[in-house]
Design goal:
heterodimer; A: alpha/beta; Rossmann fold; five-stranded parallel sheet; about 20% strand; B: alpha+beta; Four Helix Bundle (Hemerythrin (Met), subunit A); Helix Hairpins; 4 domains; five-stranded mixed sheet; 16 helices; about 65% helix
Chain lengths: ~120, ~625
């Protein structure tokens, strides 16, 4: 299963990548939303993990654009965010996101959480 | 005597005097007439006497001529003279009044008759007589001389009488003239006297009264009035005196009233000055206080006073009445959650209806387009009777508070995010390290474990701080919905499963099967129960039991009670338990690893949903924490 992981913090990106790799995912890491939009066509991931707060283009806008584009509309988006407030989660779901995983996430169960959200 | 009587008396006197005057004139005329008559009589008498004397002298002359010369003509003349004479005494006596004089006339007549007898006799016998001159000289001349002397005496007397009468008459005439001339003078004098008297009896009192009136009008009541008399003037004087007294009393009343009034007026003006000063002070205070103050009048709601701060905050109310409603509407006041606040719900409007409004938080948009959060406080103004006459409203611009609030939220949000990011790295690294890297030395595992559990604790602290800051900011949103209590309990136990599994404490849920559904935000309710459960598990001694008992009571609520068999909490600490950063000191607490916020958050979450929290504890026996959750109605 191929995941596009957008995370601007290199350390967090590394941990998430290792954690997901350990769970058997193929992970394509990118550093911001713009890169997600650039790469999403070529990579055709099964799901996209988006950090909410990123430079250049944040997760919110990225998600909006992904959902606005018929080509990418159906790719599930999971937010990976330190903002675990209800309003943020609600906004994320309203945008069409599949779910939210709060930071700090559990490195041992991150892959499982993704699968749970994706319903697999 | 009355004045009218007096005036009539005076007029009567004048009439009497006029009659008297006329009488006097008549009397004087009579007197003058009689004196003229007397004078005429005296004149006649004197004429007759003189004629008599002249006739007697002629008789003497004729008889002498005849005696001595003897011419018959003389005798004829003599007889003619005699005939002239004989009537004269009778004539004369008519004019003689005095008896003595009548006698004297009669005596002279008698002597003259004798003489005539003798002379006639002698003349008849003239021829026979010798020495005629002797005869004349001795016989006829002597008696004739005596007669003539008597006649002369009579004539002289009559002359004197005539003169007397003439003098008398002329005196009378003179007196009459004097009297006639004097009458007008008397009239004038009488008039003067009358006028004087009238003036005295009429004008002087009036003048005195007039003078008194003048004095009184000048304020001098110490005036001398004419003595009271029993007439109209007296009545007038009395009336005037009464009036003067009354006026004096009135004046006294008036002046005391005036002085009272002056005092009142001074007092009033002092009060007014005072009030004006107070008002000025108040206005200056109102004008300069930083809070925006507005005073409205009831019932119109018009702004009667507005200070500078209010001008700057909400702008000036327009003068036109029609624009006022629009003016207030134009603020588009809304509550913090964005709901529109109708104009009638504005603090000042509520105050005009008698309500005291404290700290109504509104967000208004004045006409200049700003968005200003304000805190509105308003109170009605009432008069003595308790009728609402207006309202005073204070608006406080709380933009700064909002900004601080926003900054705080932002700060908390940023800090928590910034903290979470490294914590994510640390935690993930440690987890992966612990799981994937073989560690032959068990101490190394313990060290990584310590690092990991402290990372978890740090995450919990951050979460709790975020929660408490949201609760305090009123930004924590709850979404209550009907929820099954069994599921609540199961999810809560699942959440603490890790802690429970790691210890030897048994966690026993006791949930009646027929428990009703509750109306609650499941996530937040689970959070509250988890807080209590984790506290209980931490407090519970090894191999003891923690029970979670659900009861369907009190009415309308479900109670979730979590009991441990721990050391218990001292009674004096119980009341502080639900406050922030309160932890029970003691030997065990250091390993409990709480944040000091859990119970405060629990209390807030429960109370926000309409429930309550509580604790009972007995030292050595353990503690029971409970919450109530409203059931679905």
């Amino acid at each position: 299963m191929k995941l596009l992981l957008a995370e601007d913090e290199p350390d967090v990106q590394l941990i998430a990548r290792l954690s997901l790799k350990r769970a058997g995912f193929q992970v394509v890491p990118v550093n911001n939303g713009l890169e997600v939009l650039e790469r999403v066509g070529a990579e055709a991931p099964d799901a996209i993990l988006l950090d909410w707060m990123m430079p250049d283009m944040d997760g919110f806008e990225t998600c909006m654009r992904l959902k606005a584009d018929p080509a990418t509309r159906d790719i599930p988006v999971i937010f990976l965010t330190a903002k675990v407030q209800e309003s943020e989660v609600a906004r994320a779901l309203a945008l069409g996101a599949a779910g939210c995983i709060g930071k700090p996430f559990d490195a041992l169960t991150l892959g499982q959480q993704v699968l749970t959200i994706l319903g697999k | 005597m009355s004045l009218r009587g007096r005036i009539f008396a005076v007029i009567g006197l004048m009439v009497a005097a006029a009659f008297l005057q006329a009488g006097a004139v008549v009397w004087f005329e009579t007197l003058r007439d009689s004196s003229g008559e007397a004078m005429m009589r005296a004149g006649q008498r004197f004429d007759h006497q003189t004629r008599m004397n002249r006739v007697v002298a002629q008789l003497e002359n004729e008889h002498r001529s005849y005696l001595l010369i003897g011419l018959p003509v003389f005798r004829a003349d003599f007889d003619r003279r005699w005939r002239e004479y004989v009537n004269l005494p009778t004539l004369l006596v008519q004019y003689v009044d005095e008896e003595q004089d009548k006698k004297s006339v009669a005596e002279v007549d008698r002597q003259l008759q004798q003489w005539h007898q003798m002379v006639t006799d002698l003349m008849d016998r003239r021829e026979q007589l010798a020495d005629l001159p002797r005869v004349w000289q001795d016989q006829t001349a002597p008696p004739m001389r005596r007669i003539q002397n008597a006649l002369d005496a009579n004539q002289r007397r009559d002359f004197v009488l005539l003169n007397d009468q003439i003098r008398n008459a002329s005196q009378l005439n003179f007196n009459n003239a004097i009297f006639t001339l004097a009458l007008p003078a008397i009239d004038i004098i009488m008039l003067l006297v009358l006028v004087t008297v009238l003036a005295r009896i009429l004008l002087d009192p009036l003048a005195a009264i007039a003078e008194s009136a003048r004095q009184i009008s000048g304020g001098n009541f110490d005036v001398r009035l004419p003595p009271a008399r029993r007439d109209e003037i007296g009545a007038l004087v009395k009336a005037f005196r009464d009036m003067s007294t009354a006026v004096q009393f009135r004046q006294r009343d008036l002046s005391s009233a005036l002085s009272r009034e002056r005092e009142m007026s001074q007092m009033y003006s002092a009060l007014r000055t005072n009030a004006e000063q107070e008002s000025a002070r108040l206005q200056a205070t109102i004008a300069t206080v930083p809070a925006a103050l507005v005073i409205l009048e009831a019932p119109s709601g018009r702004v009667v006073l507005q200070n500078t701060a209010a001008d700057m905050l909400i702008g000036r109310e327009p003068d036109a009445e029609a624009d006022q409603q629009l003016y207030w509407e134009s603020f588009h006041a809304s509550y913090r959650d964005g709901r529109r606040c109708p104009v009638d719900e504005w603090g000042p409007r509520r105050a005009l209806r008698g309500e005291v409004v404290v700290g109504q938080e509104l967000i208004v948009k004045p006409q200049d387009g700003r968005t200003v959060p304000i805190l509105v406080s308003a109170a009605p103004l009432r008069n003595d009777l308790g009728v609402i006459t207006g309202a005073v409203a204070a608006f406080q611009d709380i933009s700064n508070l909002y900004e601080i609030d926003r900054l705080k939220s932002e700060f908390v949000s940023i800090v928590s995010h910034e903290l979470r990011t490294p914590l994510t790295s640390i935690k993930g690294s440690l987890q992966l390290l612990l799981t994937d890297v073989p560690m032959p030395d068990p101490d190394h595992r313990v060290l990584v474990d310590v690092a990991l559990s402290n990372t978890d604790r740090l995450v919990r602290i951050i979460n709790d701080i975020l929660d408490i800051s949201k609760i305090e900011a009123g930004k924590l949103e709850l979404h209550p919905r009907p929820y099954d209590v069994h599921e609540l309990v199961n999810l809560s136990i699942q959440s603490v499963g890790q802690i429970a599994r790691g210890s030897s404490v048994a966690l026993t849920p006791i949930v009646p099967p027929d428990i009703p559904k509750v109306n609650a935000d499941p996530d937040r309710t689970i959070q509250a129960i988890v807080n209590l459960l984790s506290n209980a598990l931490k407090c519970a001694p090894a191999r003891s039991e923690v029970t979670l008992e659900v009861r369907s009571d009190p009415p309308g609520f479900v109670t979730v009670a979590i009991a441990d068999r721990g050391r218990g909490i001292p009674a004096e600490k119980l009341s502080q338990l639900f406050q922030k950063f309160q932890q029970i000191d003691g030997a065990d607490t250091r390993k409990l690893r709480g944040t000091g916020l859990g119970l405060a958050i629990t209390k807030a979450l429960v109370e926000m949903q309409g429930g309550s929290v509580g604790v009972t504890s007995e030292m050595g026996q353990g503690s029971t924490f409970w919450i109530t959750i409203p059931v679905v109605k």
